[in-house]
Design brief:
Number of strands of chain A: 0
Order of helices and strands of chain A: HHHHHHHHHHHH
Radius of gyration of chain A: 20 Å
CATH architecture of chain A: Orthogonal Bundle
Number of helices of chain B: 8
Radius of gyration of chain B: 24 Å
CATH superfamily of the largest domain in chain B: P-loop containing nucleotide triphosphate hydrolases
Structural class of chain B: alpha+beta
Helix content of chain B: 10-25%
CATH superfamily of chain A: MetI-like
Largest sheet of chain B: 7 strands, mixed
Number of strands of chain B: 24
Number of domains of chain B: 2
CATH topology of chain A: MetI-like fold
Oligomer: heterodimer
Number of helices of chain A: 12
Number of domains of chain A: 1
CATH architecture of the largest domain in chain B: 3-Layer(aba) Sandwich
Amino acid sequence: MPEIMMFLKSLDWSPLVISLKTGAVATVISFFLGIAAAGLLYRAGPRVRAFADGLLTLPMVLPPTVAGFFLLLIFSLRRPFGSALYEHFGIRAVQTWLGCVLAAVVISFPLMYRNARAAFEQVDRNLVYAARTLGMSERQIFLQVLIPCARPGILSGTVLTFARAMGEYGATAMLAGNIPGKTGTISQKIAMVIQNGDFGTAGFWTGVVCVIGFAVVAIMNLAVSRSEKKS
Amino acid sequence: MALEVEIRKKLKLFTLDVKFRAENETFALLGESGSGKSMTLKCIAGIERPDEGRIALDGRVFYDSDAGICLPPQKRRAGYLFQDYALFPNMTVLRNVMAGMGRHPDRGTAERYLEAFGLSELADVFPGKLSGGQKQRTAMARLAAQKPDVILLDEPFSALDTHLRWRMENEMQEKLRSFGRPAVCVTHDRDEVFRLCSRVCCLEQGRSGEAVTVREFFRNPRSRAGALLSGCKNVAPCRAADAHTVTVPEWGVTLRVPGTVPPGVRYAGIRAHSFHAENGLERSGCVNCLQVREAAVTEDLFEWTVSFRCAPGGGALIWKVSKEVMPDIRIPRELLLDGEEIMLLTS
C-alpha cells in the first residue's frame, strides 16, 4: 500500500490533463465542423457528395503519420504558410499544445462528420419535405428538424470523436512532439516509458485509458437510450 | 380559381405524363400503387421536379419548363398531407402546428387551430404518444394553420384502422368543404373517391386519363384500368357483333346493350353485384344470360362470393350476392344480366 501511495505521489499527472484538455477542445471543434460539413453534403448533389466525402474521410483512412506529414508541410516554420502564421499572428503549431489540438481535430473530424451524416440520412426524408411545404427555411429545417431528429447518432458520434481525439498518437507525435508537461499526452507517455522498459508506469496509464474509454462509451449508451425514451 | 397541371417526368419504370385541371373542388387521382400518383403530388408541392411541363395555381406559376420557372416548395403555399403525416417527432402537437405559421408564430392563433381540430388537451404531447386519428388531426391542424392555397392529400386514410377511417373521412369532408379551393386527393381506394371527391382522373403507368365526375366514372369508367380501379371484378376482351351486341369469347356469350355499341370497343365489364341468379328455369337462348360452371364459393360477412368458369378454359367470372337476398347459397347454372349494367370500354 505505501508503495502505491508513493508511486501515485511521485507520478507526473500532466499527461492526463493534457490528453483530457486536447480531447475536449478538439471534440468541440470537430463537433461543429463535422455537423456543418455533414449538413452541407446532405443537400449537395451526388457528384459533389462523392468527391467531398472522399476528401473529408481521407484523414481516417490514411495512417496518422501521413496526416502528420501533411500537417508539418503546412505548419512547419520553414514553410510559407507556417512562417507567415507565426510572423503575423504569433501562432505556431509545431512543438506546441496547439499542435496537439490540430492533430487531434484532423484525425477525429471524419468520425464526427461521418456519424453526423449517417444520422441525417436516417432521418425520415418526408419530415424535411413536410418542413419545406410548411414554408420553413433550409436553415430552420437544419436546426429545428434535422439536428434534433438526428440527435442519437450525433451524440454517439461525438463520444467516438472524443475518444479518438484523446487517444491520438501518430500525427500528434510528428506535429506537436512529446514535450513533457506541454505536449506529452497519455499515448505518447505510454510509448516513451515502454521504450525505457518501465512497464509499471505504462501499465498504470494503460489502466487510466481503459477506464476513461469504458466510462465514455457507457455514458454514451445511457444518454442515447434516455434521448430515445423521450421522443 | 383552378390548379392546372401538365407535366412529364421520366421515372425508372415508365414516364409520368399527367394532365388535369382541378377547380375549387376535391379532385381525385385514382391509381394502383406505383402508378405515379404520389410523384405527381410531390411535383405539385415542389418536392420533386418534373422534366418538363407547367404547373399553375390561379395563374400563379409554380413550374414552367419553357419559362425556366421552378418555385421552391416554401413559396408554393401547398398544404401537403403525407401518408404517414410526417409530424416532427421532436416537437409537441402545439409546436408542430406552429411550425407552419411563419417566422413569428402566434401561440394564441395556434391554440385556436388546436381547438378547431379537437386537440386542445393534447397541446403538450409528442407525436409518438398520439393515436392514428389524433396524428391525422394534428397533421390537418398544421396544414390548416399554414393557410395553404391548395391542399394535397396523399392516401390520407391508409394509415388508419378501418373503424377510424369512416369518422376521419367525415371530418375531412367537412374541412375540405369549407376550404373552398382546389384539393387533390391521391388514392387507390374507390370508396374514398366516391365519398370524398367530386371529379376523378385515373392514372395508369404514369399516364392520366380524362377527368370525369365521380358518378359518371362509376357508371361508365371507359377504360379497362378505370373499370378495375372502380371495383369492377369482371373485365374481358370483346368485339362488336352488330350495332347492339358484343361477343365475349372468354365468357362464351353475346351480350345485348340498350344503346348502340361505341366504335372501337375493346372490353366488356360487369360488376360482381350486377348478376341475378336464375335457378331451375332453363331458358337457353335468352338475352344476356351466361352459362356458368365450376363454382368456388367464398363466404364473406354479409355476402357470398362465387367464382365461376364460363367456357371451358375461359376466364373466371365473379358473382357477389347479399346474404339477405340468398341466406343459403344455391349455385345457379345461369346468370342473368340487365343490359344497362354492361360497361363497354374503349381502351
